[in-house]
Design brief:
This protein is α/β, with parallel strands linked by helices. Helix 18 packs across helix 20, helix 33 packs across helix 34 and helix 34 crosses helix 35. Strands 7-10-9-8-11-12 form a six-stranded mixed β-sheet, with helices on both faces. It has 35 helices and 25 strands.
């Protein structure tokens, strides 16, 4: 391993990642661990070692003082991670090699040579292309793909090196000697580029041969250039050459992979919140810390079931978990149920295995029904919505509330909410991964096919560990003032979301079919326009081919380069819309194909055959602000802009005799901002029921509200919402036609007119720095250790999150309270209306015609009174036969 190169590559390839407790940056450590585990698992080495650079100058600096002189100073957030990587390497038992006067490359070259001489196959893992020169029979280089993610790699042998560089591995130093290497500040020969260098090497073989046969070089200008720069060429080659005779020795005994201590590695992973990598640690080595020690009794007879039920009747608390055939709770078949009443002891009730002794489902339902509906017993589950939905579909309804350790962990700021990761991180216990039971890939099997004893041990541990986690999380929630938010908002919301998911929404598939056929014709027409403008056919969906056509063939003004190619993203192409007639049909083609492939052609296939409706899953734990998200499919992302977007929405319909009703909070984020900041101007505008954007424009431009133009209002709206997201001068410049200077003046003017908003934002950032978190009106927290990062970009991004979270999070809390209150009132009144969707600040209901008047008054009344603010909450209500045509 080239330690420095892999760490640098990981740091720049991966987004910022910090430890929750300290704010310490660890993205490079995480990336290094990822790469190390990839190598261990995929290449299965018998020996390994790692080389690091030392800070002292090398012999290359003595040869050429400007060597690597152009490189910026290593960021502090990266420097601090080297020690952590060394800790990781040490726990893996990997020998560390480093030498004064030499680079890590030279050490690797020496080790590779020694290994090759002993007939040992060698792979060099690096992010530095210099190592390609070391490729030889028995020596390969594992290197990141040019445009892939950090963990996407190519194993380079001699053929692949030649294919990429146009020269043999041993000629790479000649290539760099001629064309130079800007990354190392190696000058090469001025005026010689890659193609000329490749041609010379192909003809002569090496720099030495070129100068021996210099009179054969043509044209004359090139020959003279080479002649006058001979010293640079020879020195550049020497600078680029990795030496293979450094004073290090390959110690095969010391570098054995068998020295790896799994227990120590697992403990370090726990300290660094790397629980997600735990399952990738190789087997066959000691398990860490405390092993899972759950004793699980299999309940597979009526007598055993009766005995268990008698115990359940006396218990004050139990945890339950389901084993099923699918992660989709609306399609999953029940395989078994596990229960835990006390620490270390669990019970497993098999009901759906393909073989083995088990209980009839009807008997289990009959005997467990009373216990699971007994609210006097504290019931706990991890991701209770899934388990309760599955049980409910199998006639075993669980009456709430049911404590949920996943919701607890989310409120406590845990980043990974997987049960096994939480158990490892919080209890130091390593649990069996699901892949050990069902396998992976082509060999994967259903849980129903797993032997009952194996499933029992697995499921019993899940129930037992859920009980242990609840005992840890409950006092923490109370100590941090989160118990009320948890018990009065998040928990009561679970059964509401279950009802919404089970209800689903009706889809007009015939309309979507017609729309799909119409779009297919439009797409063909647009393709033809693009091909005619280009002069030939090509793959419009290929960024590489598109870039070649636009900037290579048509010579359009180049966009910014990314990974060696000109970008062809929507913002870049929009800027070129008036330059060439090919651009507009490309943009339209993209819009139509995305709409068609993402929604129009996909949604009908997702309809549940049993219900005939489309069902989504609402997630309470996916966002840091507390907003609900939707998945499988994401119905919060259905297009709303443009005629085509509205056409898609028209396909979401109410059944005969009913309407869809939409109740939408009006500008809730700005109303929350007014309340949290207490700004008199902002609050007055809402109390007077003014158009807030026109009111802001009036203040900023110094005109009466009636004289505010659409452009003035549009700019004021951008700033109003931009403030909530911590918009900078640059951000406002990008979002408008203002210059940077004008944007700065505009933001300053905004804060002059709304001074308490400015004070609130500054106080919020200060609180984040002092406490390490910010919170909503109801106490929801977002932990932001990155706000203390030394990296300015990371720190400023954290400050923007700090500004945004109290506002957006409070808005999210308000609509959750409204959903709970509405569900209770609808149930209390015995109404047949159903809440179907939550889309950010909007709730969508399916309402029978005879209840439309009632719900049109009830929904806004309850939503407006969900949480009392210093300004009124306003709710707009619309109804119609489909989601688009509402009045």
């Amino acid at each position: 391993f080239d330690g420095n190169a892999v760490i640098h590559r990981a740091f720049h390839a991966l987004p910022p990642l910090t430890l929750k407790k300290t704010g310490e940056m660890i993205n490079a450590v995480y990336g290094f661990a990822q790469m190390l585990l990839k190598v261990i698992n995929e290449l299965e080495p018998t020996h390994y070692a790692i080389a690091f650079d030392r800070a002292a100058p090398t012999f290359r600096h003595e040869m050429f003082a400007e060597y690597k002189a152009q490189r910026p100073q290593t960021p502090e957030d990266l420097t601090s991670q080297f020690a952590r990587v060394r800790d990781l390497v040490e726990t893996f038992g990997m020998p560390v090699l480093e030498l004064d006067s030499y680079e890590a490359d030279d050490i690797l070259g020496t080790l590779a040579r020694q290994a090759r001489e002993q007939g040992i196959e060698t792979i060099i893992v690096t992010g530095d292309a210099d190592a390609m020169q070391l490729v030889a029979p028995g020596v390969k280089v594992l290197y990141p793909k040019p445009r892939g993610s950090f963990s996407d790699t190519i194993l380079y042998d001699e053929e692949k090196v030649t294919e990429r560089y146009g020269v043999k591995p041993e000629q790479i130093t000649d290539l760099k000697g001629l064309k130079g290497d800007p990354s190392d500040n190696i000058p090469g020969v001025k005026g010689i580029g890659e193609k000329t260098a490749q041609k010379l090497i192909s003809q002569f073989g090496s720099i030495e041969q070129i100068y021996q046969r210099l009179d054969e070089v043509t044209p004359e200008k090139l020959r003279e250039n080479l002649k006058s720069n001979e010293a640079d060429a020879r020195r550049s080659k020497k600078l680029a050459t990795i030496v293979t005779d450094t004073p290090v020795t390959l110690d095969l005994e010391q570098s054995k992979f068998s020295h790896f201590d799994r227990e120590r590695v697992a403990q370090l992973f726990r300290e660094m919140d790397f629980a997600s990598l735990l399952g990738r640690l190789p087997e066959g080595t000691p398990q860490p810390g405390k092993p899972a020690s759950t004793t699980t009794e299999i309940i597979d007879s009526q007598a055993a079931l009766d005995s268990l039920v008698a115990q359940l009747a006396r218990t004050k608390r139990l945890t339950f978990d389901t084993e099923t055939t699918s992660v989709d709770c609306l399609k999953a078949k029940l395989v078994g149920i596990s229960l835990a009443l006390e620490s270390g002891k669990a019970y497993y009730l098999p009901v759906g295995h393909k073989e083995g002794k088990q209980l009839p489902l009807a008997a289990v339902v009959e005997r467990l029904k009373d216990v699971l509906q007994n609210t006097a017993i504290a019931r706990v589950a991890h991701n209770s919505k899934y388990d309760m939905t599955v049980l409910g579909r199998h006639s075993l309804n669980v009456k709430g509330p049911v404590d949920d350790t996943m919701l607890m962990a989310h409120l406590l700021g845990e980043k990974t909410l997987n049960l096994k990761a939480l158990v490892f991180g919080r209890l130091g216990i390593e649990m069996t991964p699901i892949s050990d039971l069902i396998g992976t890939g082509a060999k994967q099997r259903s849980m129903a096919e797993v032997p009952i004893k194996e499933t029992a041990d697995y499921a019993g541990a899940d129930a037992d560990m859920t009980l242990k986690l609840a005992e840890v999380f409950e006092p923490e929630l109370k100590m941090q003032g989160l118990w009320k938010l948890y018990s009065e908002v998040e928990l009561p919301l679970v059964p509401v979301l279950m009802k919404m998911e089970m209800a689903g929404i009706k889809l007009d598939t015939a309309r979507l079919g017609d729309l799909s056929r119409g779009l297919a014709e439009q797409v063909k027409k647009l393709e033809k326009e693009v091909y005619e403008a280009a002069g030939h056919e090509f793959n419009i969906n290929s960024p590489q081919q598109l870039s070649g056509v636009l900037f290579g063939e048509l010579k359009l003004p180049p966009t910014r380069r990314r990974q060696g190619a000109y970008t062809t993203g929507a913002p870049e192409l929009e800027a070129l819309a008036g330059v060439h007639p090919i651009i507009r049909p490309i943009l339209d083609y993209r819009q139509l194909t995305k709409l068609k492939s993402t929604y129009i052609d996909v949604l009908p296939g997702l309809i549940n055959p049993e219900t005939g409706r489309l069902h989504t899953s609402f997630n309470q734990t996916k966002t840091a602000t507390g907003r609900l998200s939707s998945s499988d499919p994401n119905l919060q992302n259905i297009p709303i802009r443009g005629e085509l977007g509205m056409e898609v929405r028209r396909a979401f319909v109410a059944p005969p005799g009913s309407h869809l009703l939409s109740a939408d909070y009006s500008q809730i984020d700005l109303r929350v901002l007014a309340h949290l900041s207490g700004d008199e101007g902002l609050m007055a505008a809402f109390h007077n029921d003014e158009d807030i954007h026109a009111a802001t424009a009036s203040r900023l431009f110094g005109v009466e509200t009636g004289k505010v133009t659409p452009d003035m209002r549009r700019l004021a709206k951008t700033v109003n919402f931009g403030v909530i997201y911590g918009m900078s001068e640059y951000g406002l410049e990008q979002a408008t036609e203002l210059s940077r200077e004008e944007a700065g003046k505009f933001i300053s003017a905004y804060f002059e007119k709304y001074p308490e908003v400015k004070h609130f934002l500054e106080e919020t950032k200060k609180h984040a720095r002092e406490k390490g978190y910010v919170q909503t009106l109801l106490g929801r927290r977002r932990y932001l250790p990155e706000v203390k990062a030394s990296n300015r970009l990371v720190r400023e991004a954290a400050e923007r999150m700090a500004i945004n979270m109290p506002v957006q999070g409070t808005s999210a809390d308000i609509i959750k309270v409204a959903m709970i209150n509405l569900d209770r009132e609808v149930t209390k009144r015995g109404l047949k209306s159903r809440m179907l969707l939550q889309v950010h600040d909007e709730l969508v209901f399916e309402v029978p015609e005879d209840e439309l008047k009632t719900m049109s008054h009830l929904a806004p009344e309850i939503m407006a009174g969900a949480v009392l603010l210093g300004v009124p909450l306003k709710v707009d209500v619309k109804a119609g036969r489909n989601w688009a045509e509402m009045e």
